[in-house]
Design brief:
By secondary structure, the protein is of the alpha/beta class. The protein is 32% helix and 22% strand. α2 packs across α8.
Length: 232
């Protein structure tokens, strides 16, 4: 722990944590301090001026990052017959119906995303109490309840990132890896910011995007200038 603490302190010394950076400047600073022995995840955190306890201030959606996430997303699909075959061919990691429901009820969670065909939602609905708190419940708003399971699987594997505002008005997500080049990370960050900007709910009052910070898994946070962050 002492070594990690010393390294983090050293990284923080080289970063002005109060200065507002452009997306490109922030990426450069984060990459310069990503020195862990593993490929650190580049993470974005956005503080929004919303109260998600009100339905008209909920922010959620999905964005397809142009350069992928750099991680292997494990996808579980609820489907039967021809749709089940389509999902398997598209690269789904696990496909099933009642059998998959029973497996999850028994504690199986070796997946990162759940996709379902509309006819499977009666079965999936029984898993609401276990999938809901983990943010894994399929939802048509983010394309995870769909008859086109093959495309949904490909999107999930190719860089689709779901986002949902938490109680404190914060959205955070992984937007790449430290091994990506600066341009690829910057493009992913910009795509994410643009998607959250477009998802502004009708009930949002005042400043919508209050603060944006970028960090790597083990590195310090760098603030992004919100005034120029969203593309026109």
């Amino acid at each position: 722990m002492a070594k990690i603490g010393k390294r983090i302190r050293k990284a923080r010394e080289g970063v002005d944590r109060e200065k507002l950076h452009t997306v490109e400047e922030a990426v450069k600073a984060i990459k310069a301090n990503a020195s862990a022995k593993f490929d650190e995840t580049i993470e974005i955190a956005m503080n929004l001026g919303v109260d998600p306890r009100h339905a008209d201030q909920m922010v959620r959606g999905v964005v397809s990052l142009p350069n992928g996430t750099g991680r292997n997303v494990r996808v579980a699909v609820f489907a039967k017959d021809a749709k089940a075959e389509e999902a398997k061919e598209a690269g789904a990691d696990i496909v099933g119906a009642e059998d998959l429901m029973e497996k999850i009820q028994g504690g199986f969670f070796d997946f990162d995303r759940v996709i379902a065909t509309p006819d499977m939602m009666a079965i999936v609905g029984r898993l609401g109490k276990v999938l809901g708190p983990k943010g894994l419940m399929p939802n048509p708003k983010v394309g995870t309840v769909t008859p086109n399971v093959a495309q949904a699987v490909k999107d999930s594997k190719g860089g689709a990132v779901e986002f949902r505002v938490e109680k404190a008005g914060i959205i955070h997500a992984g937007v790449g890896k430290a091994s990506f080049d600066d341009k690829a990370i910057a493009e992913n960050v910009q795509a994410f910011i643009d998607a959250v900007t477009k998802a502004k709910p009708s009930g949002a009052k005042g400043a919508y995007i209050k603060k944006i910070a970028l960090s790597s898994t083990m590195g310090p946070g760098v603030k992004i200038d919100t005034s120029g962050a969203a593309s026109a």
